[in-house]
Amino acid sequence: MITVVNYGLGNIQAFVNIYKRLNIPVSVAGNTEELLKATKIILPGVGAFDWAMTRLNKSGMRTCLDELVLSEKRPILGVCVGMQMMAKKSDEGRLEGLNWIDAEVKKFDDTDFEQKTLLPHMGWNDVMPQKENYLFEQMENTPRFYFLHSYYFLPHKSKEILAVTEYNYEFASAVYSDNIFGVQFHPEKSHQCGIQLLKNFANIEVC
Fold it and tell me: Can you point out the beta strands (E) in 32-90?
């Protein structure tokens, strides 16, 4: 069962609609009891890092998520801020992240841009896989996805970078560590490539 975590943030219904069209069982978890039924988990997110962490911590599902992801190794896909929350910390706030991946979240240095209006990074951009991974199977060589963010995920271990995107300079647009996956873009808004990625995640097997 694909389960989308509902802690008050993210395009929850968009994920549900896509999986229903694919005839893949999907549910929404707003409490621990519902979350425990998940075989694979999607952690969506929009908005500011501290606000998202606060909402998740107050949802009552934080401890359960840690247990399912870290101890039981159930596959999870973090999306946008949902991915950023997997890091240790973020330049955007003061709260600690989930610390599932050895990484931090940095703000794009807009002094590198010719025009400061280029933040946020918004719109379609190429995502370039750096290694073979089932998440990007059955797609064109350089798939395109929809982005909306001003902060990027910086893993401390290069082996955890699954794909990169160029926005004045390259940043990690997809990461993974064992059963933990994260994408900076929005697959639920990315048409066919996004649908294929969500389908791939539903079928992925993690040892």
Answer: 40-43, 76-79, 89-90
Domain count, the chain: 1
Helix (H) or strand (E) segment spanning residue 203: helix 191-203
Q: What is the CATH number of the domain that holds 90?
A: 3.40.50.880
Q: Annotated catalytic sites, by residue? A: 80, 186, 188
CA torsion, points 52, 91, 96, 63, in degrees to nearest 10?
Answer: 30
Is the Cβ–Cβ distance between 162 and 130 less than 8 Å?
A: yes
- Which neighbouring-strand residues pair with 174? 163, 183
Quote the pTM value: 0.94
Question: In this predicted model, what pLDDT tens digit does every residue of 87-124 receive, in sequence order?
Answer: 999 999 999 999 999 999 999 986 766 666 688 999 99
pLDDT attached to residue 117 = 61
